[in-house]
Hints:
The complex is a heterotetramer, with two copies of chain A (about 260 residues) and two copies of chain C (about 325 residues). Helices cover about 20% and strands about 35% of the residues of chain A. In chain A, the strands form three sheets. Chain A has a seven-stranded antiparallel β-sheet. In chain A, strands 11-10-9-8-12-13-16 form a seven-stranded mixed β-sheet, sandwiched between helices. In chain A, strand 9, helix 3 and strand 10 form a beta-alpha-beta unit. Chain A is an alpha/beta fold. Chain A has two domains: about 90 residues, Beta Barrel (Elongation Factor Tu (Ef-tu), domain 3); about 140 residues, 3-Layer(aba) Sandwich (Rossmann fold), CATH 3.40.50. In chain A, helix 4 packs parallel to helix 5. With about 325 residues, chain C is α/β, with parallel strands linked by helices. The longest helix of chain C has 16 residues. Chain C is globular, with a radius of gyration of 19 Å. The model of chain C has no long low-confidence stretch (mean pLDDT about 90). Classes of the chains: A alpha/beta (about 260), C alpha/beta (about 325). Chains in contact: A-B, A-C, A-D, B-C, B-D, C-D. Chains B and C meet through loops of B and strand 5, strand 6 and helix 9 of C. The site of one FE2/S2 (inorganic) cluster has 13 residues of chain B, from loops.
Amino acid sequence: MQRLSDFSATVIEKESMAPGIWTIKLKPEKLRLRILPGQFFMIRAWSSKDPFLFRPFAVSGKNPDGSVDISFKVVGRGTELLAECERGQKVLMRGPCGNGFPNPLGKRLVLAGGAMGIAPLLFARHYYENSIRTLLLLGITGEPEWEPFSKAILQKFPDTLLFSENGMIGRKGTIVDGLAEILDENDEIWACGPEGMFHAMGKIEERWTLPIWVSLERRMACGYGGCLGCAVQTREGPKRVCADGPVFRLKEILWDEP
Amino acid sequence: MQRLSDFSATVIEKESMAPGIWTIKLKPEKLRLRILPGQFFMIRAWSSKDPFLFRPFAVSGKNPDGSVDISFKVVGRGTELLAECERGQKVLMRGPCGNGFPNPLGKRLVLAGGAMGIAPLLFARHYYENSIRTLLLLGITGEPEWEPFSKAILQKFPDTLLFSENGMIGRKGTIVDGLAEILDENDEIWACGPEGMFHAMGKIEERWTLPIWVSLERRMACGYGGCLGCAVQTREGPKRVCADGPVFRLKEILWDEP
Amino acid sequence: MNPDKRMALNIGGLEFESPLFIASGVWPMDSAEWPDGALNGVGGFCTKGLTLRPKRGNPGIRVWETPCGVMNSIGLQNPGIKAFLEQEYRQLEKAGKPVIFNLSFETEEELLLLLGYIMDTAGNVPVELNVSCPNVSKGGLSWAQDVNALERVVTLAKRNWKGLLWVKLSPNVSSFTETALAAEKSGADAVVVANTWLGTAIDVSRLEPVFDNIHAGLSGPAVFPLTLRLVWETYAAVKIPVIASGGVCTWQDAASMIAAGASAVQVGSALFSDILATAKMYEGLSSLLEKRNIGSVADLTGIAHGRRRDTNREDLRHG
Amino acid sequence: MNPDKRMALNIGGLEFESPLFIASGVWPMDSAEWPDGALNGVGGFCTKGLTLRPKRGNPGIRVWETPCGVMNSIGLQNPGIKAFLEQEYRQLEKAGKPVIFNLSFETEEELLLLLGYIMDTAGNVPVELNVSCPNVSKGGLSWAQDVNALERVVTLAKRNWKGLLWVKLSPNVSSFTETALAAEKSGADAVVVANTWLGTAIDVSRLEPVFDNIHAGLSGPAVFPLTLRLVWETYAAVKIPVIASGGVCTWQDAASMIAAGASAVQVGSALFSDILATAKMYEGLSSLLEKRNIGSVADLTGIAHGRRRDTNREDLRHG
Ligand SMILES: Cc1cc2nc3c(=O)[nH]c(=O)nc-3n(C[C@H](O)[C@H](O)[C@H](O)COP(=O)(O)OP(=O)(O)OC[C@H]3O[C@@H](n4cnc5c(N)ncnc54)[C@H](O)[C@@H]3O)c2cc1C
Ligand SMILES: Cc1cc2nc3c(=O)[nH]c(=O)nc-3n(C[C@H](O)[C@H](O)[C@H](O)COP(=O)(O)OP(=O)(O)OC[C@H]3O[C@@H](n4cnc5c(N)ncnc54)[C@H](O)[C@@H]3O)c2cc1C
Ligand SMILES: Cc1cc2nc3c(=O)[nH]c(=O)nc-3n(C[C@H](O)[C@H](O)[C@H](O)COP(=O)(O)O)c2cc1C
Ligand SMILES: Cc1cc2nc3c(=O)[nH]c(=O)nc-3n(C[C@H](O)[C@H](O)[C@H](O)COP(=O)(O)O)c2cc1C
Ligand code: FES
Ligand code: FES
């Protein structure tokens, strides 16, 4: 695997996916990136020490010119500054971080994304397009802001199965309801989304004995495995989301323990 | 006089005067500025709280479109960020700060600038162009970096009297030597430059009994007269360079007192 | 700015229209110099530190920028209480905002004289005893560093002052809550938490200390988490109102201080980087009350003490 | 990076190739995870805080960004000394950089056991006693808050340890120099000044404390001026080497710490914002020595103490 480093990259494209949600293409200046779906980068679009920390973002795509796509929602200062970047601007990147998803078993790969959590799964979908069968699911809440985002995803991947909690778009229901409907016992599930979604998925894993891999989020200070700020408790003891994850086997995770 | 306020302005032009020295035109978004030579603005070309403080810059020109010119040398982080601004970018300004030079007496106005200290005098020269006789002097050290700057000044004001300490350009000698040569006892002097220059000028004031006004520099936290960080001791007690100055009668200043 | 009744509060019997005050030492005493609108949303402001006799302040560099902060070594430059009362104060009175007299003194006699002069000219105005200035060699910080001296001087002030009595404490002491308790016990109506944090700066181009006094006081957003800690602890220890002062720059900062136990908040260095900072905080706090349906800013005070995180984990992706 | 002999130094009899160390708790213990080049210019690094028994660390949010800083409440998560020695340490040994064992303990017995295990497996390596961790309820900070306990424990360590003994002090104490003097008197070879500064954070979206422990440790550039002050004062008080730790991000910061009295400097949070921070500091410091014609970095230590500003005014416009 490629060793992590800090490097400079150029914004070579910037596209609005929906109000407040952007996809940008970042091209490293010197490096040639080797990355797997589920890996992520720490990014800072400013040279000041304030904000002090990099921000973590999943890779949502990789392009032939060596650039990577990051799809993100503006939620605070860091993402605001990133969204203000214009084409040609330089940003700092740290990565590739984490391990990404393990090699798929080769059967059907069900990719279940909750809202913005779909980002790393878009990369997975694209990455395995020509090698294995994949099925992309997107689940959103009923908040209107997610409607245009869902449409943007559908436009890119028209066969996406879409679920909204209030039925405003796609089928009505949660993504876990949806999974229960479509699952085959040979499937493998990769998921990314809010933790509530993972909790509900725990039951699926019990019932179907399918392998479920989930990509977690934690606040991160370093992203390189040094600070232990991003710990999650697992059956094998505490793990670092940034360096041991962000992808874990769902049943390994001890949600209820500190 | 116009009350000070914080406002946003747009960089509408940016010109390199010499390596590391820039002139930028800043146009306030809403305000119409009323300013006198010697007044200055606090500027920040970043939205972060780091760097924390605004940076003070003299006005070096005022244009019919309502914009002001700032001519500055890159010396640290704040000026670096300002120099990185591209046309169209927004900056924050605070001002107009200070009182500027008093109304000239109407005789010949001798404007003596030491290196970058010429900035406010360029505005004065332009401001009084059609009303009174002015004479612009520029004095620089022998450091090569000042040569292209001097040429840029000469190009703009070809009748500038130029002095360099080692004679590399213009006449050889300090600006104070130069003043001694050309002064007329009816002259009035406005000066801006390093303090060493003012000390030397003290003797001129004694010998010629001319009014000499000087524009001072101090580190500033607020620029609006609140923090007392920019104090200078005068015969009338401590004064604030930002609000009571930056222009003072040379003989009022007590250099040797804390 | 829309005035909002929910923002009004009572400190020690006195009504203020907003919990946001301008801290001592950052605001011009000549109202002719006040930028338009900058006092919107301000409940009152503290004067520059006043002393019995005029003071020219410290020589050398007085302000120095640090990461997200600023250090100062002003040294209490002021015209002396008499000149202040005769000149600046006449102006300030007319400004229509409560003025809090920030006082520094080296001896108990000086304090008594200061209070006497103020009483004669201004009456029972609120005073803030600055027992915490790090930038003067005598008086200042030393009061706060000796709990007995602190008790003595606050007791004396209380006996000789009918107006509101705030005591502004220093973070540079052995036990902060001990000094807060001492101030409370001795009759303070409120404690101001806190003055600047003692720091040092070196000028690398000369490899020399920046300040003639070597040490100086650090303020600004850098110290916010530190002062917030003191506010939390003080609120848990005393019953009198706590007034926060340290690094407050945004309405979120102000809300944090209040939730941690502050009744009111002072805004200082924030004004250096945005002269409308207080006005913006007022808007932000006022919307917070509105959104959360909180009837009065006083109900926000200390609200975080009752609450511990209900999960031991946060869910970062809010679907 | 060009190795520079002038950057080498001796601390308590041990040679290090650079005065720049990586602070405890910010660096992965698995050398397979180290980014290329990131240890260039590093004189050695401190392990994550090690304890006798394994620790899972604190629940809840563990890191939180602040203006120019970061707060942490990790709670000493580590596999315990035995597992560490058997696994990570075998890796680290091969890395070719001195490893300083950062140790936390609740009782004197624990300390003795820790030292015993280390002696058996690693020999007389340098140790850094962490008597200053703000994030654990027992042990940690409490050692530094009680001068007698501190003296007892350092004396005990000294008697039972032949290797280098650093004592890492807490800024959150009554009198910092008193604790530094106590460490010196009890046999410390060097004092590390200092650990993180105690702060609090409130999550405004919930009006709750961010951390389960409410308080957490602040580090990063925000605290630089504060820790620099402690370094200055400690250098003036003790004779043993002072090792600075607090907010050092640039070579100018490192030079300031050294000029104020540090023999060496630890780099912690700076790495969060630039993984090559230490390598860049090395270059910068090395050029400073070159430009000023200073023969050895040791000659820079404390240089600012001899110097007061020669003028009481600065001339800002250098023509
Ligand atoms: C492994 C990983 C992958 C991610 N991938 C994506 C992605 O592809 N697209 C996307 O939109 N978002 C993604 N996120 C979330 C993203 O990192 C946050 O939205 C972002 O850090 C918010 O920064 P801010 O400055 O705008 O918000 P602020 O709230 O101002 O940030 C303050 C601090 O909190 C941290 N923080 C805030 N929210 C989060 C969060 N949800 N997760 C982790 N740290 C947080 C910030 O990093 C920062 O340190 C990912 C997070 C992780 C851990
Ligand atoms: C009234 C006034 C008018 C000025 N006019 C001009 C001008 O027209 N053109 C020009 O090039 N420069 C001018 N200066 C100087 C200019 O303000 C500084 O060069 C600038 O602040 C440096 O900022 P920095 O971040 O690049 O440097 P840094 O050294 O990184 O700044 C660190 C801190 O020191 C302060 N500082 C550093 N140098 C000075 C200085 N010389 N004067 C005041 N504060 C300083 C900064 O403002 C900042 O707070 C003027 C200064 C004053 C007081
Ligand atoms: C330039 C300056 C001057 C100050 N002068 C005084 C003073 O005279 N008396 C006082 O009690 N506090 C003084 N202070 C402290 C402030 O009132 C305030 O308590 C401190 O700066 C922390 O708050 P802040 O971070 O919001 O600035 C001064 C602070 C600054 C920055
Ligand atoms: C995430 C994190 C974990 C830390 N863990 C430890 C520790 O285990 N032991 C210790 O002595 N110091 C620990 N520290 C303190 C640092 O070693 C350092 O002393 C402090 O952060 C100040 O320096 P800095 O501003 O350069 O980070 C930790 C700091 C951080 C940020
Ligand atoms: S973020 Fe530092 S270990 Fe994961
Ligand atoms: S800079 Fe604050 S009074 Fe002049």
